[in-house]
Specification:
single chain, about 500 residues, alpha+beta, Nucleotidyltransferase, domain 5, Gyrase A, domain 2, 3 domains, five-stranded mixed β-sheet, 14 helices, about 40% helix, elongated, ATPase_NBD, MSHA biogenesis protein MshI
Length: about 500
């Protein structure tokens, strides 16, 4: 995890490509520049051992020292294999490919490099294989010449640059006097490859001879077989056009001759730049245009040399940078400390004065603390005052009638007498008046009570309970109580 974290900081963006170099067994071709202005150059060689010399000559001639170049392997320098697609992630697949194709190549998995992509049939994987020795030889030759190999791809893949994205096309191409190569693409993706042997150079000559017609008929037959096979696989988008790019041939005349023999359109491949006259130049230009976007890169990340960060020079530079940083931080703190020194002295003086004042206030506070004995005496006095206030309140609430007697109450009660009521007992207090007696009939008691409103003193009296019943002699008895007795419901 730590390694991935540091890798996110140390990873650089992919550099832009300045040129592309295509390696063949008989030539080395370079294309330099942009789409609008390109330069094409090549050097013929006798064998692949002359690659370093040819690369150095081209790099020096076109001033590509220090440039980032794309390398394209020509036909015969790699193997193309079709295998079942394994259930692996992309990272695992990159490491597992050499072992997945070990039974299909002559070299050990440790001696080969491989890369691939999914075919249009999702269960198949198109793989391209080269030897690690050959790849190391190419990388070393580029470094020796003063340039850097940024990516390594193959000829079969870069031909897709000349095809359309929304259709299926078959490219018939030949480098020099080699064999014819058939490469089919569907939606800009490689789908089919085949090599045709036994067809002379050139396929068309000025004189229309029987031998030429027979050769063209044989070629058309082989092409039709390939078309039928590919179209059977691509039912939704069959091959609709053939593109011709053959060295040492009149491509337009060859396209016309094949048009007469096939049921699909045949056209000569028209390069985007007039200087791309040869198949090798077109392959090199296509490799430059695709660059890092190519579907195949045999020079993958895990094969590239790891940059050594922990070197003596890097350590010395790190120590120097750390020393400068520490010195800078220390200087900043020292400068800031000198600026704050007067303020610190002033604050310390203020703190000392505040502490002195606090001590004086604390001494004064001790002089004003009340003793516990005094606090207890005050509590006792407060309780006595509360008791006396309660007594005064009771005296104040005492019925004023106790001071003048109950004569007026009895006088008004006598005035309210009724022939139907006989009073046996009267109990008068400050809180109320209770009356017990007998009545001639039960209704006489309420009528008698209603007359109390005529007398001022009796009107002030309130009764909470009226009881009317009969005694043993069937006499009506009543009881008026100012407040209910305890235990009476």
């Amino acid at each position: 995890m730590i390694q991935r974290l540091f890798a996110s900081f140390l990873t650089h963006k992919k550099p832009s490509l300045n040129a592309a170099i295509t390696l063949f067994s008989d030539a080395v071709v370079v294309v330099v520049g942009s789409e609008a202005d390109i330069v094409v150059d090549s050097i013929s060689i006798a064998s692949t051992t002359e690659w370093p010399t040819a690369i150095e000559m081209l790099i020096t001639k076109h001033q590509l020292t220090g440039a980032q170049v794309a390398v394209i392997l020509g036909q015969g320098l790699y193997q193309s294999l079709l295998i079942d697609k394994p259930e692996l992630s992309s990272d695992e697949l990159a490491l597992a490919l050499p072992y997945l194709v070990k039974d299909l190549v002559n070299e050990a998995p440790e001696d080969i490099v491989a890369d691939g992509f999914s075919c249009l049939q999702n269960d198949r994987l198109q793989v391209f294989v080269s030897t690690r020795q050959q790849l190391n030889k190419i990388i070393a030759a580029c470094k020796s010449a003063g340039c850097n190999a940024a990516c390594v791809t193959v000829e079969s893949v870069v031909w897709s640059e000349f095809t359309a994205d929304n259709r299926s096309q078959l490219v018939v191409h030949r480098h020099g006097n080699g064999n014819l190569q058939l490469t089919a693409f569907s939606q800009h993706k490689l789908f089919f490859q085949r090599q045709l042997r036994g067809f002379d150079v050139s396929l068309v000559v000025m004189a229309n001879t029987d031998a030429q017609s027979l050769q063209l008929d044989s070629l058309a037959l082989e092409l039709q077989r390939s078309l039928d096979f590919v179209s059977a696989q691509l039912r939704d988008n069959p091959i609709s056009q053939l593109l011709i790019s053959c060295d040492n041939d009149d491509n337009h005349q060859l396209a016309q001759a094949l048009n007469d023999r096939l049921n699909v359109t045949v056209k000569a491949l028209v390069p985007p730049q007039p200087s791309l006259t040869s198949t090798a130049a077109r392959v090199t230009w296509a490799g430059l245009k695709q660059g890092f976007d190519s579907a195949i890169n045999l020079y993958s990340q895990h094969l590239q040399p790891k940059r050594q960060w922990l070197t003596l020079n890097n350590m010395l530079l790190s120590w120097l940078a750390l020393t400068v940083l520490i010195a800078t931080v220390s200087g900043c703190y020292s400068f800031k400390s000198r600026q704050l020194a007067p303020e610190i002295v002033s604050n310390n003086a203020q703190l000392t004065a505040a502490q002195t004042e606090l001590a004086l206030i604390q001494k004064q506070l001790l002089l004003h603390i009340v003793s516990p004995i005094k606090q207890q005496r005050v509590s006792v006095l407060e309780q006595e005052i509360s008791a006396k206030q309660a007594t005064l309140k009771a005296v104040a609430n005492h019925d004023a009638s106790l001071l003048v007697g109950y004569g007026e109450v009895l006088t008004q009660l006598a005035a309210a007498a009724s022939t139907d009521i006989s009073i046996d007992r009267i109990s008068i207090s400050a809180d109320g008046m209770n009356i017990n007696g007998s009545a001639r009939i039960p209704d006489a008691v309420p009528r008698w009570l209603s007359t109390f409103n005529r007398y001022s003193t009796l009107a002030e009296r309130r009764f909470q309970l009226l009881t009317i019943d009969r005694d043993d002699s069937n006499q009506v008895r009543f009881s008026l109580q100012a407040q209910r007795l305890q235990g009476v419901n």
